């Protein structure tokens, strides 16, 4: 009952052009049926994400470990709440990150869980930068 | 099922079969001669009611499956086509959807009855555990069935429930992928759920056979909890139990029919009339009402894995009930303390159900934790403790003694009354609390609709005017894709002739093709065509309207609702109020205000609407006084336009509503007569046994 060949083939890597996304904006693309948020973070958002005491987080992880070095402004996360799979809303909640409307989990500007029932941070999909303005997800 | 029978059919042909396969003997010994305790009350008819409901669900389900398409792109539409185009499809669908709820109503009564009268105690442990297995299978079947219409709640319910398994350590993610057959809930998920939803009812039927077998070996429990000793304690199953069950089923059918014909959407969720959209989570996901207590338990535990364990544990714990409650006295009738704790437990379950439907915040979370504790405490603390400390009243020597001694020795049900009052009080307090929380989003005012109530009919004039408003105003942005031009000439609709509908259709340009040269072309509409949508696809609609796609209006009056709150949602069952959708749509059309109240900032390109959730709506004020001309002299005001177009949209959402209510009346007359006949027959049959 595992995914069949065509489903796996349809889940091949996709390329996303980042140039049209202005600072402070984000887009949602679908990969393997999952929404992927790509946020162009502002300086303020990056600072917020990095000034946190990592040890105090429910799922400790530095912001550096969640983005690609040299591309700190780009946050790429799977937009599926780690609690029960709803889609969090971007730019909402008290940490200016994501807010899940189903059971009230709040994520920060690095997609890390700060409040609510979700056990872990928003997952970072496998991706790499093909060029400065293009990424390949998958 | 209770051993070899000496039954011999009198008909020679049946004798011939009986010698080769003693099936008539089996039936005779199990359902005719089978001795049943003579003191059973009406709570014991729920076994028969459940068998009847299982048969009903399988029968309607098999027919529905003949018309249903299990494909993520087509499922929602195929369900709508069943309701609109299949002969009596609306009836089949209502019977099946409402039937699921009624099945659970009956099973909960059946389970609480077993709990109250100690039907799980020695020697009926296996019988009880088989029952818990049936209940688990029912929950799985009900959940997968709810996914099949592929609406928003179907999709997101499936997402949340399948994600429960991701809490399993190490292998969780693989289990979830296995359930999905993909990387998210999608077409493969729908296909396998359809397959399993078709399979599981037959598995249930198989376990029911075991359940009945075990029942007929151990014999039925009874309200006094003493085993039958002599022949005086029992009566033959037929006619006594048969006729009593028939009366019970007839009464249950009255309740069932009330929902099928008058409140078909009361037990469902308005969001499920919106097609599934993997990109948008509804703001408030709730499961069907029969899972709500367990959902409340899940949410009250702050840890994900612990929450999932608690939820499943709440059901599995029932299997251990025979060994948790070791009291010798079976029936709570003779257990003064157990009786009171039983009613407290019932109240806890109902309150948990109420909390499961509330948003997980503030007071609800705390209340949920307390009640979750109470739920488990009943099984793990109260019942084992009571078995040791309680002094039960003496039980009668035999069933016939109990029947003869039946006098007015009722103790005043003080505690139960107090519990019911406390329950109502706390629900009421909760609703005031949530009313405060929802402050700012005004409740739409009620209207008098021609189509409300048990004899409601559509006002033909309003339908025709509403069609005109739709065509001249709404149609520039909103589609009506489930409605065909031929529907305009169908009975129960706007009352046009076939020729008028054809003429109406021919005014539209419909895309067809490809022709012989392989090109698409436009031609005048025909009655069989559907209303063309103003935009080619959702993206085009979104792009042309500032990012908010105008929703299709075919189902809008059923897809929109607002919270009624306690106690209104209980009164609504009796008053048959189910016009939340039309009230909301009509209010929205009139809810625009030029002056934005202080303290409210609207995003760019949004307009202020009093009744829109969040108040910032992307649709500009769609209609003003005098915009559409009426030929019949009706006032050309926004109020009148709103009323007419809402009536029209109620018809597009449910074109067979008049037929539903008409048939409902006939069915009720029949059922009342039938139940009366059954009652008097039952009285006659039981005359000597009481």
Overall mean pLDDT of chain A: 87
> What is the name of the CATH topology of the largest domain in chain B?
Cytochrome Bc1 Complex, Chain C
Using DSSP, what is the number of strands of chain B?
6
**If helices are DSSP runs of H or I spanning 4 or more residues, what is the number of helices of chain A?**
2
Provide the gyration radius of chain A in Å.
Answer: 15 Å
String of helices and strands of chain A: HEEEHEEEEEEE
Which class do the helix and strand fractions of chain A yield? mainly beta
Topology readout:
The complex is a heterodimer of chains A (138) and B (690).
Chain A: H1 5-10, E1 14-17, E2 26-31, E3 34-40, H2 43-50, E4 74-78, E5 89-90, E6 98-99, E7 106-107, E8 113-115, E9 127-131, E10 134-137
Antiparallel strand pairs in A: 1-10, 2-3, 3-4, 5-6, 6-7, 7-8, 9-10
Chain B: H1 12-20, H2 23-31, E1 35-37, H3 46-67, H4 75-85, H5 89-116, H6 125-147, H7 152-163, H8 172-180, H9 187-218, E2 234-236, H10 237-262, H11 292-300, H12 304-316, H13 321-324, H14 336-356, H15 363-389, H16 399-404, H17 414-437, H18 460-472, H19 498-506, E3 509-512, E4 521-524, H20 538-544, H21 556-559, H22 568-575, H23 580-590, E5 607-608, E6 616-617, H24 638-653, H25 657-686
Antiparallel strand pairs in B: 1-2, 3-4, 5-6
Helix pairs in contact in B: 3-5, 3-9, 3-10, 4-5, 5-6, 5-10, 6-7, 6-9, 10-25, 11-12, 11-14, 11-15, 14-15, 14-17, 18-24, 23-24
EC number (chain A): 7.1.1.8
Family (chain A): Belongs to the Rieske iron-sulfur protein family.
Membrane topology (chain A): Single-pass membrane protein
């Amino acid at each position: 009952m595992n995914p069949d060949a065509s489903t796996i083939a349809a889940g091949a890597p996709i390329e996303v052009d980042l140039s049209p996304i202005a600072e402070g904006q984000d887009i949602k693309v679908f990969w393997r049926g999952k929404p992927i948020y790509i946020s162009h973070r502002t300086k303020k958002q990056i600072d917020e994400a990095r000034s946190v005491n990592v040890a105090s987080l429910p799922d400790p992880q530095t912001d550096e470990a969640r983005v690609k070095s040299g591309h700190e402004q780009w946050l790429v996360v799977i937009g599926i709440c780690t609690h029960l799979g709803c889609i969090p809303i971007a730019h909402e909640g008290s940490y200016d990150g994501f807010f899940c409307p189903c059971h009230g989990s709040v994520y920060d500007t690095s997609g890390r869980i700060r409040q609510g029932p979700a056990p872990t941070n928003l997952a970072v999909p496998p991706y790499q930068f093909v060029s400065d303005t293009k990424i390949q997800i998958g | 099922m209770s051993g070899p029978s000496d039954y011999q059919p009198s008909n020679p042909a049946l004798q011939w079969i009986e010698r080769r396969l003693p099936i008539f003997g089996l039936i005779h010994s199990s359902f005719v001669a089978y001795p049943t305790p003579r003191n059973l009350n009406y709570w014991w008819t729920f076994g028969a009611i459940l068998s009847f409901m299982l048969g009903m669900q399988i029968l309607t389900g098999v027919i529905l499956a003949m018309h249903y398409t299990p494909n993520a792109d087509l499922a929602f539409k195929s369900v709508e086509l069943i309701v609109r185009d299949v002969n009596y499809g609306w009836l089949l669908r209502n019977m099946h959807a409402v039937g699921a709820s009624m099945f659970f109503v009956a099973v909960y009564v059946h389970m609480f009855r077993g709990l109250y009268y100690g039907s799980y105690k020695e020697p009926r442990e296996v019988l009880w555990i088989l029952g818990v297995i049936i209940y688990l299978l029912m929950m799985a079947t009900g959940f997968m069935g709810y996914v099949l219409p592929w609406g928003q709640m179907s999709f997101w319910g499936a997402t949340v429930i399948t994600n429960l398994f991701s809490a399993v350590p190490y292998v969780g993610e693989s289990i979830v992928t296995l359930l999905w057959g993909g990387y998210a809930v999608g077409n493969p998920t729908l296909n396998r759920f359809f397959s399993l939803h078709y399979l599981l009812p037959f598995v249930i039927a198989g376990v029911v056979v075991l359940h009945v077998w075990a029942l007929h070996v151990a014999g039925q429990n009874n309200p006094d909890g003493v085993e039958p000793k002599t022949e005086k304690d029992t009566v033959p199953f037929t006619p006594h139990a048969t006729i009593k069950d028939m009366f019970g089923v007839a009464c249950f059918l009255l309740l069932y029919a009330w929902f099928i014909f008058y409140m078909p959407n009361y037990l469902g969720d308005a969001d499920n009339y919106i097609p599934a959209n993997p990109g948008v989570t509804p703001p408030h996901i709730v499961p069907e009402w029969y899972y709500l207590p367990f959902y409340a338990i899940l949410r009250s535990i702050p840890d994900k894995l612990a929450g999932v364990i608690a939820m499943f544990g709440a059901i599995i714990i029932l299997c251990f009930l025979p060994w948790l409650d070791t009291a010798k006295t079976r029936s709570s009738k003779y257990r003064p303390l157990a009786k009171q704790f039983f009613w407290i437990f019932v109240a806890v379950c109902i309150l948990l159900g109420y909390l499961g439907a509330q948003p997980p915040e503030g007071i609800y979370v705390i209340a949920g934790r307390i009640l979750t504790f109470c739920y488990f405490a009943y099984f793990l603390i109260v019942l084992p403790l009571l078995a040791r400390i309680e002094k039960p009243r003496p039980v009668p020597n035999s069933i016939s003694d109990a029947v003869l001694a039946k006098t007015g020795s009722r103790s005043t049900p003080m505690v139960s009354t107090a519990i019911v009052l406390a329950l109502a009080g706390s629900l009421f307090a909760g609703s005031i609390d949530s009313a405060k929380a929802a402050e700012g989003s005004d409740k739409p005012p009620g209207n008098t609709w021609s189509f409300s109530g048990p004899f409601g009919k559509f006002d033909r004039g309003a339908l025709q005017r509403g069609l005109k408003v739709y065509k001249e105003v709404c149609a520039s942005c909103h589609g009506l894709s489930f409605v065909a031009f031929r529907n305009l000439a169908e009975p129960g609709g706007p009352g046009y002739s076939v020729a008028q509908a054809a003429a109406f259709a021919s005014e539209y340009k419909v895309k067809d093709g490809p022709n012989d040269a392989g090109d698409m072309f436009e031609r005048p509409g025909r009655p069989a065509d559907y209303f063309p949508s103003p935009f080619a696809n959702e993206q085009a609609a979104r792009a042309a309207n500032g990012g908010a796609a105008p929703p299709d209006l075919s189902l809008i009056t059923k897809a929109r609702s607002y919270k009624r709150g306690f106690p209104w949602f209980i009164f609504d069952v009796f008053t048959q109020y189910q016009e939340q959708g039309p009230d909301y749509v009509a209010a929205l059309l009139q809810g625009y205000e030029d002056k934005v109240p202080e303290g409210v900032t609207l995003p760019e390109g949004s307009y202020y609407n009093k009744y829109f959730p969040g108040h910032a709506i992307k649709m500009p004020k769609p209609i003003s006084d005098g915009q559409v001309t009426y030929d019949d002299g009706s006032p050309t005001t926004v109020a009148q336009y709103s009323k007419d177009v809402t009536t029209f949209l109620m018809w597009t959402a449910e074109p067979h509503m008049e037929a539903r209510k008409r048939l409902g009346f006939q069915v009720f007359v029949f059922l009342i007569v039938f139940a009366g006949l059954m009652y008097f027959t039952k009285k006659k049959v039981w005359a000597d046994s009481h």
